[in-house]
């Protein structure tokens, strides 16, 4: 997850279909956050915000689906974390005769207790994918479950597989051959470890390639 910046806010609005003068006007106002924090501006922006925030809602829901949540369109999305269910609901602030949406709050709660585990007013300053990760991570933290960043997890797995290879190599060669024979007709353990190390290395390289380069 990245910390919100003007650049991430621009990216978030553009992925919702906001382009050209709309984005420029938003930035002139100090960004959506400045509008959100000033109720006096809500009525002036309601028509524009309603359509864009609905697109944003779909984008965040789809991002959560990509991260393992399931559910039908227009209904609650749910996932499981260590046996505890997490469900999504949205609360909208509306204005005007048309009840236009001017802000959306995303909440993750435990449907068995109805306890809210994370509630975030969407300031549209992160991409939908990053916002979804931020929302989910907050709920997981509230559950007291420690989550490891993917890059760190893969690096640890890679190191453990290499350690396993080293341990295997320390066994007497004759014994290793006997153990390998006992592995028939399955894939030999040494070969499985070698494949695992290679696969983990590919993941490490892929994550490194996806990481933002320092400017």
Would you mind describing this structure in some detail?
With 215 residues, the protein is an alpha+beta fold. Helix content is 54%, strand content 16%. It has a four-stranded antiparallel beta sheet with strand order 1-2-3-4. The protein is elongated and about 80 Å long. The model has no long low-confidence stretch (mean pLDDT 86).
How much of the sequence lies in strands comes to 15-25%
| Uncertain ranges | none
Number of helices: 8
Cα Rg: 24 Å
Task: Write down the overall geometry.
Answer: elongated
Number of strands: 4
The termini sit apart by 18 Å
Overall number of domains? 2
> Main sheet: which strands, in order across?
1-2-3-4
Structural class: alpha+beta
How would you concisely characterize the structure shown here?
The chain has eight helices and four strands; from the N terminus they run H-H-H-H-E-E-E-E-H-H-H-H. The chain has about 220 residues and is α+β, with helices and mostly antiparallel strands.
């Amino acid at each position: 997850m990245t910390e919100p910046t003007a650049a991430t806010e621009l990216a978030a609005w553009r992925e919702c279909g906001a382009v050209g003068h709309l984005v420029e006007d938003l930035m002139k106002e100090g960004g959506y956050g400045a509008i959100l924090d000033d109720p006096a501006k809500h009525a002036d922006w309601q028509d524009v915000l309603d359509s864009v925030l609905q697109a944003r809602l779909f984008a965040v829901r789809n991002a959560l689906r990509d991260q393992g949540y399931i559910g039908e369109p227009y209904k609650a999305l749910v996932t499981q974390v260590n046996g505890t269910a997490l469900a999504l609901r949205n609360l909208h602030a509306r204005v005007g005769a048309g009840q236009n949406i001017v802000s959306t709050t995303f909440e993750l709660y435990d449907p068995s207790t109805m306890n809210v585990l994370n509630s975030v007013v969407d300031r549209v300053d992160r991409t939908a994918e990053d916002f979804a990760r931020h929302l989910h991570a907050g709920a997981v933290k509230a559950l007291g479950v420690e989550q490891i960043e993917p890059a760190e997890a893969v690096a640890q797995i890679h190191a453990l597989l290499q350690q396993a290879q080293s341990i295997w190599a320390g066994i007497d060669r004759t014994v290793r051959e006997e153990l390998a024979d006992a592995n028939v007709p399955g894939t030999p353990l040494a070969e499985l470890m070698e494949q695992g190390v290679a696969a983990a290395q590919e993941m490490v390289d892929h994550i490194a390639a996806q990481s933002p380069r320092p400017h």
